Amino acid sequence: MKHRLFLSGPITNIDDYRKRFDQDDNLLTSKGWAVANPTRMGLEIFPDTEDGWKDCMKETISIMIKCNGVALMDGWEKSRGSKIEKEIADILGIPTKTVIDWAKQDE
After folding, report:
1. Nearest Cα to 5, choosing from 79, 85, 84?
2. Tens-digit pLDDT profile for the chain (107 aa)?
3. Is the pTM above the cut of 0.85?
4. How far apart are CA 98 and CA 96, in angstroms?
5. What is the edge-to-edge ordering of all strands in the sheet holding 34-36?
6. What region does 54 belong to: left with phi over 0, alpha with psi -120 to 50, or beta?
7. Is the separation of the CB atoms in 94 and 4 below 8 Å?
8. For residues 16 and 96, what is the distance between their CA atoms, to the nearest angstrom?
9. How crowded is residue 106: how many other Cβ atoms within 10 Å of its Cβ?
């Protein structure tokens, strides 16, 4: 098993976000990666408010910083949360690549 990747992508205002996360999770898992998928962590229990969003971000960031890399999904550049996650990962020296680039990587 390769190292653990945190899956980062848009959720807010995306109707099929769970399907998109599951597809990318399945792709990375099929390539041998362990994946931390925020849509499978029970974080949807937080209300759809600014405070709820902040609570979700605190939870996802605490998980992300324990991973070996961040896999950026299509559209991450338009997601406020994903941009924050990428910035924190860059500051902490956690590698970030697109999902496709991680899937192509051999260890």
Report:
1. 85
2. 569 999 999 988 888 889 999 999 999 999 999 999 998 887 655 557 888 888 889 999 999 999 999 999 999 999 999 999 999 999 999 999 999 999 998 65
3. yes
4. 7
5. 34-36, 4-8, 69-72, 96-98
6. alpha
7. no
8. 24
9. 6
